[in-house]
From TrEMBL:
Pfam families: Lectin_C. Residues 24-144, 210-330 form the C-type lectin domain. CDD domains: CLECT. InterPro entries: C-type_lectin-like, C-type_lectin-like/link_sf, C-type_lectin/matrix_domain, CTDL_fold. SUPFAM superfamilies: C-type lectin-like. It comes from the Eukaryota. This is C-type lectin domain-containing protein.
């Protein structure tokens, strides 16, 4: 008997997902164990650097439905990232505001006006077909994000000396996305600071340039959640104030005679679990705060968000998110670089150089006589 031993290559998976996420197809999904409203589910997914699940095709929907039917996760209704836009009378994805190109609704008219204030769920009673529930009701939810690829490396070749330059570079990696210290020497150079010039920044037609950012000051009132989505529908966000300079510039504009004196929502929200103020768009805690002293006297900030209050010269205040206020949307300004073509050189006068042939012949004769004498 002849025994043939073949080398076994220990390869790593081609796509990976972070903790608490499951790979399904080309995406990573997180199936929650707790129940919450649709708006809170949106913010909890953003804390996980993801978004409420967006399903754009039948194949993707089939994979998710198979996973829910085969695994013991409990037969719960689960939120997706779609909601009904009562102005356009369409179902849209809240992540990008685009209408649905594919839907898995079962036995319902998705364009009916009765679906105002409703959001999309996966219904276990209909084999996880799509359904609609009031956005205020509490359900489980599904977060989704893209999976990141990792190159397959044969670990048996890492110990050998016959390794190529590409394989040695991959073997020297400590973990996914982190290289050895020796490979971090070629760092990109920092960009040079350009002096601030207001004429080099522009904003969309419906926004105002204040400092280096564009702002939209609403004329109508809305609760904090509606204000958040109104800004997102216009491809902006509720205003975030990151530094003291931004705060002073915006407050100086509001305290002037440019706008009406209204209390206005900005993008700060209170996380009652961690007991911290955070920016809703990124989920990061506030590094800069400028609350009025009267606002800090109220220690119970549950279900509260941040406003700019004209009573305190537009210092920050805390209000219940269900109250109706004006709001401020924010976007980045675009820089405009002026380029002037170099002008062609046009001389004022022409210079003509002439040579005297007689002088040149005399110089040559003198050189010949000097060589003969030597």
């Amino acid at each position: 008997l002849t025994v043939i031993s073949l080398p076994v290559s220990h390869t790593q998976p081609s796509s990976l997902c972070p903790k608490r996420f499951v790979p399904i197809g080309r995406k990573c999904y997180h199936f929650s164990k707790d129940e919450t409203t649709w708006n809170d589910a949106h913010f909890r997914c953003s804390k996980l650097n993801s978004s409420l699940a967006v399903i754009t095709g039948s194949h993707q929907e089939l994979l998710v439905r198979r996973y829910l039917n085969r695994h013991r996760l409990g037969r719960y209704e689960r939120w997706l990232g779609g909601k009904f836009n009562d102005k356009k009378l369409k179902w849209v994805w809240a992540q990008n505001g685009k209408p649905l190109t594919f839907h898995g609704f079962s036995r319902m008219n998705p364009r009916d006006k009765q679906w105002a204030w409703h959001c999309i769920i996966l219904d276990p009673e209909r084999q996880y077909k799509w359904g609609a529930r009031s956005c205020v009701s509490k359900n489980h939810y599904i977060c989704a994000k893209k999976s990141y690829k990792k190159k397959n490396v044969d670990k048996t070749n890492c110990n050998n000396n016959n390794t190529t330059s590409n394989s040695t570079e991959l073997c020297s990696k400590n973990s996914v996305g982190k290289r050895a210290p020796g490979l971090l020497m070629n760092m990109p150079k920092k960009k040079k600071y350009k002096p601030y010039n207001p004429a080099t920044f522009i904003c969309p037609s419906h926004m105002i340039l204040v400092g280096r950012k564009c702002y939209f000051f609403s004329l109508e009132e809305a609760n904090w959640s509606d204000a958040y989505w109104a800004c997102r529908d216009n491809k902006t966000k509720l205003a975030t104030i990151m530094t003291k300079m931004e705060d002073n510039i915006l407050r100086g504009f509001l305290n002037g005679n440019f706008t009406e004196k209204h209390e206005r929502w900005i993008g700060g929200i209170y996380d009652w679990k961690q007991r911290k103020w955070k920016w809703a768009m990124s989920g990061r805690p506030l590094r800069y705060k400028h609350f009025a002293r009267a606002a800090l006297e109220n220690t119970n900030h549950t279900q509260h968000c941040i406003t700019l209050d004209p009573q305190y010269k537009h210092l920050w205040n805390s209000r219940n998110r269900l109250e109706r206020k004006h709001y401020i949307c924010q976007a980045r300004s675009k820089s405009v670089v002026k380029y002037e073509k170099p002008q062609k050189f046009k001389p004022d006068a022409t210079v003509i150089i002439q040579f005297d042939n007689n002088n040149i012949l005399q110089d040559r004769n003198l050189e010949n006589t000097a060589t003969e004498a030597s």
